[in-house]
Structures are given as structure tokens and as C-alpha cells.
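Lab notes, practical 5.
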Amino acid sequence: MDWKRPCCGLGINLASPRINEMLSDIEKGLSLAPDLERKSVEVNSARSIGAFIAAYYQASAKHLSSFPILSTWTEHVQRSALMILALQKAHELDSSNVTIMQWIIYICTENLEGLQSGSTKLFMKDGFPVTTTRLELRDTYTQRIRAITPDYEPPALNRVSQSNCFIATATMGTSDHPLVLALQ
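Output from the prediction step:
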């Protein structure tokens, strides 16, 4: 394997998120990089991961806005988890890249805010592990950016009102259904 071979994001689409394969290929490339060039390869790999995730996120968000239903929201939140993991790997490779940290914060914020399209409200319910994790990640990376740029302020968190979840409740018949609770 040629350690310089560009591979970031090839063959990936919304239905087939081969992000773990992409990260594995990057790791293999890094293991073959000469010691003198390793830091440069890490920084370039982090940038490539960041650029790919930005494009992948935009495709996922566009799909969600086109189809604002519970299943699409669930898929988007699941894809977001993969994107965040990839961005965390990029951060490990280049901890000074503020853009990567901003993407993590942005994706966490968007997931926490939820989506409202007309009377449809899709959101992550307070108290659930995925909600807590997104809040913790948002806070962690905000602090990391502030260590570099002290006046940094994360995007405001404007959450969708969680008083009703029409689609999930209508689909499952009750707001107490386990799937509704898990997806909220």
C-alpha cells in the first residue's frame, strides 16, 4: 500500500457509510509513513477527514430536510455519531485544528436542537445517554477551542420544544412506546 494514496471518502454514500474503513485505511497509511513525514501526514489526514465529514454531513442534513420523518431523523442521528467519531480521530491526529473541533460542536448542537418542520418535531429527549453524550462532547470541545482561542463562543443551543412528538407518537400509537422514548 502506498502511504500517500488518497483514499479519504472514496465509495462512501449515505446508504453505505464506510467511515470505519476510511479511518482504517488512514491508519494503515500512517503506519507506512516515514518518521520524518509522519506529523505532516497526520495533519493532512486530519484535514481530509474534516473535509469529507463536512460534505457527508451536508448530504445527510439535506436528506433530512427533504424527508423530515422519524426514520430519517434516526438515520441522521446515527450517521452523526459516526461523523463525530471520525472527527474525534481527526482531532487526535491534529489537536490544534480548530475547524475539526467546531464541526464536532456543530453536529452535537444540531442533534441536540432537533428539527421542526411544520407541526413535525423531531428531537433527542433529555436524560437519554445519546443526549448526555452530545452535551458532554459539545462542552469538552468548546473548552478545547477556548484553550486556543479564549473568546470562542459555541453556537447557541436553541432546542425544539419537547412538549410533543407528533410523528413518533402517531406512528407508535403512544408517547410511552419504547421506540418513541429511545428516539426522543
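Observations recorded by the TA: Residues 19-183 form one domain. Helices lie at 19-32, 38-66, 70-93, 98-113, 129-148, 166-172, 178-183.
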